[in-house]
Amino acid sequence: MPPDDPLVRFTELFGRAARSAPFDHTAAALATAAAGGAPSVRTVLVRYVDQRGFAFFTSYESRKAREMAANPKAALCFYWPWIDEQVRAEGIVTRLDADESDVYFASRPRGSQIGAWASRQSEPLSSRRELDSRWREVEGRFEGRPVPRPSNWGGFRLAPERIEFWKAGEFRLHDRSLYTRAGATWSVVALYP
Which architecture characterizes domain 6-191 according to CATH? Predict the structure, then answer.
């Protein structure tokens, strides 16, 4: 019998995937849609999960951030082929508060902090030389002092309304469980593969 709380179940699975991961187990496909409904998908790194949902970070000026501002519904899909399991989560995305974004930004490697300042994420780039020049300029600006979080960079949280767990089965008879939120409680049903 699966646990009543899918976020508890996810946390256990996430830990199991991490223990045997040949690559970054935090990688997930994030699907968003523009206001007009056109979908787009890319991989993000989900940095942590708690009872509020799945947290990831980006530039607020990126395409995904603009799409989430116009249409705050999104979906995540984790797939861990080394354990033959997948999790899909769908829900509403909101920005994290500044304090939470500051804490995560301070934990990043210094080079990644500088990169957040140097990149104009999702904008056209004339040459790699331009990006390298911007990175060196930012590195010089913050030499000898901490790099603060740029105001156009921070976190988002997907608060799940649906979470589906999928486990590969012999003869493609996979195990699927769908959790659906109703207020503060979750209901769960098994699905045909």
Answer: Roll (2.30)
